[in-house]
Amino acid sequence: MSALPSLHDVLRDARLPAGSHLTRVVDSEAARIAGLNVASAPQRNVDARFEKALRDTKGRNGGAVIAEFKRASPSLGPFAADRDFDTQLQAYRDGGAAAVSILAEPALFQGSADEVRAGKRYDMPRLYKGFVLDARHLDEAATAAQADAVLLIARVLGKHTAAFADAARERGLEPLVELHELGEIPFARDSRATLVGINARDLASFAISTPTADPLREAFPDAVLIRESGLSTPEDARAAFAQGFDTVLIGEALMRSTDPVAFLQACRT
């Protein structure tokens, strides 16, 4: 498989703001992955199951939802610690979610690779939602988590994003490249991304903005465009579809909802 930069080099080049939520998570994940003994993933082809599910659902419903399972976050703490995994995943399936995103980071998000793997029994494509910094993260996503897709954060990986995207594909994982500002478009373009997300939540301050789809569509005319974070209601999701996004990723609002099935059904246009 292709060589990737060392963990040291990725952290050096990231130049993250000191004391931010993002830096806390990245430092925690760097320490965890450095001590992790994970089997190397075999080389395999990408079957594009995740991307196909998003495109097919958009065709039927006017937009697709990636429903996220997330118990906690650095800014909110354990806001959904009592949510039962199986009950929530079954609701996502019943509500028509195109795919699921499952947190893999244990310290601040209370996630795990084991839960990503456990989601397999609900027969929805699964995104390993973590903070990829090292080849061992990709191996964990492919082997321990048995995920279909993996999140790559351009704010963290920067010029190394393309190398990690290629390494993900070699392991059979579809890379979803996440941007936080338009200046990161070249990283996603170099990665040949067909799944491009823009996160409305600033990972340093966790403040919410309102990203637009038009510049992304110009840069990635054939990609699946995904709006992430800051979506509190089904109306927010439908507004994102009307603005030109193909897919939305919703976590906190679904985890807090008393009826996630109805929430998901109301997202259809």
Write structural notes for this entry.
With 269 residues, the chain is α/β, with parallel strands linked by helices. It has one domain: TIM Barrel (Alpha-Beta Barrel), CATH 3.20.20.70. Helix content is 41%, strand content 15%. It has helices at 7-14, 21-34, 49-61, 85-95, 113-118, 135-144, 154-157, 161-170, 185-190, 214-219, 234-243, 252-256, 260-266, and strands spanning 64-69, 99-103, 126-129, 149-153, 174-179, 195-199, 224-228, 247-250. It has an 8-stranded parallel β-barrel, surrounded by 4 helices. Strand 6, helix 10 (214-219) and strand 7 (224-228) form a beta-alpha-beta unit. The radius of gyration is 17 Å and the shape is globular. The chain starts with 6 loop residues before the first helix and ends with a helix. The relative contact order is 0.17.
Total DSSP helices: 13
Radius of gyration: 17 Å
Beta-strand portion reads 5-15%
Q: Which percent bin holds the helix content?
A: 40-55%
CATH fold assignment: TIM Barrel
Q: What features would you highlight for this structure?
A:
TIM Barrel; about 15% strand; alpha/beta; 13 helices; 8 strands; eight-stranded parallel beta barrel
Quick structural overview:
This protein is an alpha/beta fold.
Write the topology of this structure.
Blueprint: H1 7-14, H2 21-34, H3 49-61, E1 64-69, H4 85-95, E2 99-103, H5 113-118, E3 126-129, H6 135-144, E4 149-153, H7 154-157, H8 161-170, E5 174-179, H9 185-190, E6 195-199, H10 214-219, E7 224-228, H11 234-243, E8 247-250, H12 252-256, H13 260-266
Parallel strand pairs: 1-2, 1-8, 2-3, 3-4, 4-5, 5-6, 6-7, 7-8
